[in-house]
Write a structure and sequence with these properties.
Layout (H helix, E strand, L loop, with lengths): L7 E4 L2 E7 L14 H4 L4 H8 L7 H14 L4 H12 L8 E3 L6 E11 L2 E5 L4 E5 L4 E8 L7 E7 L5 E8 L10 E7 L9 H9 L4 E4 L11 H12 L2 H7 L4 E3 L3 H4 L8 E2 L5 E2 L2 H11 L14 E5 L2 E5 L20 H4 L1
Parallel strand pairs: 2-10, 10-11, 11-12
Antiparallel strand pairs: 1-2, 3-4, 4-7, 5-6, 5-8, 8-9, 13-14, 15-16
Helix pairs in contact: 3-4, 3-6, 6-9
């Protein structure tokens, strides 16, 4: 996709901060993992990624090892819940913010067992309470009726009303506002950049109201749902990612490595073009693992459009509708429906 984004752009009052998300890994240092090795996805290399920038506590590493084993087992969900209970985890990772607008935000919560989630949001003067519709493993709670350009903190409670997460955010200004605000743009986290403290800490410290992440984010060429889920678990145990996702709303699109493999597009892979890619299953998994605006279930692709105050954001699906063999022809890149 793109190796580095370096430029600053202003758009409708928003300062778009584009930052490189690649790890800058130094292959000569045995502590660092190269991008090529990160694609291999072995337990040894994934543990090196987890400890690449900060050595994690043994309990964190043990949880990842056992959680990974559980996800890859025949009874993945049930066994993973047992591992979470063993390590005292009532939430997988941290709350993940997304889909922020002038007057709303959506909070994603992944718990080991089905829970009914409550999110309490306050601006320091008034507290609003929002509940999930049902008990499930992954809940997306939409918090409506917020005020523009306002700083909020929030708490997340499970079915037992135990606090399982906290964070903060600031809503964008109104569409008519001339006030500047920041939105960060970046790409190519891969698995390594999600563990790099100074990178994500800088994005948050600059006061970005949101971040657009343009693909190659956490999964590196995984071909099955369980393999994808262990890459997402590696993301979720990263302390720096947990801090970031709970405080900076993110919008995400996928690229080739998130999708299936290097330079892959469309519904088939391999030189023969006969290997079918389970596109619909991968889309469902993607939507569960990130926190984008709610898509139309009948729409082909994972693209969406939304507004952050005066900024109109359009995120395209450049993978699952493309036909590499028809490159250069009409609709070969984004598909007919998305182009329309």
């Amino acid at each position: 996709m793109m190796n580095t984004l370096k430029y600053l752009t202003t758009l409708s009052g928003a300062l778009i901060c584009a930052l490189p998300l690649v790890s800058g890994a130094k292959e000569k240092n045995p502590k660092y993992v190269s991008l090529g090795d990160a694609h291999k996805g072995t337990l040894e290399l994934d543990l090196k990624i987890l400890n690449q920038f900060v050595d994690q506590p043994k309990s964190t590493q043990d949880f990842y090892i056992k959680g990974r084993e559980a996800i890859l087992s025949d009874q993945g969900t049930e066994n993973f819940a047992k591992v979470c209970a063993q390590f005292g985890h009532q939430i997988v990772g941290a709350p993940m913010l997304g889909d922020i607008t002038t007057d709303s935000i959506k909070v994603r919560i992944h718990t080991p067992t089905p829970q009914q989630i409550t999110v309490k949001v306050t601006d320091g003067k008034k507290e609003l309470s929002f509940n999930s519709q049902q008990q499930q493993l992954v809940n997306f709670i939409s918090c409506q009726g917020l005020s523009p350009d306002t700083a909020y903190t929030y708490r997340v409670l499970n079915s037992a009303q135990t606090e399982i997460g906290v964070g903060s955010f600031t809503t964008p200004p109104t569409a008519q506002s001339q006030k500047s605000f920041r939105i960060a743009v970046g790409a190519d986290f891969h698995k390594i950049g999600l563990h790099r403290p100074e990178l994500l800490e800088q994005v948050q410290a600059r006061g970005n109201r949101a971040m657009m992440l343009l693909g190659d984010l956490a999964v590196d060429g995984r071909r099955t749902i369980p393999e994808r889920d262990i890459d997402y678990l590696l993301r979720d145990v990263s302390p720096v990612w947990k801090q970031f996702s709970a405080n900076v709303p993110s919008y995400t699109s996928w690229d080739d490595h998130d999708y299936y493999g290097n330079d892959t597009g469309g519904k088939t892979a391999g030189k023969s073009g006969k290997h079918m890619i389970p596109v619909n299953d991968f889309r469902k998994n993607w939507r569960k693992q990130w926190n984008n605006p709610t898509p139309d279930p009948e729409r082909e692709g994972i693209y969406f459009s939304t507004h952050l105050g005066p900024v109109h954001m359009i995120m395209c699906d450049t993978r699952s509708c493309r036909v590499n063999e028809a490159r250069g022809e009409h609709n070969s890149f984004l598909g007919e429906e998305q182009m329309a």
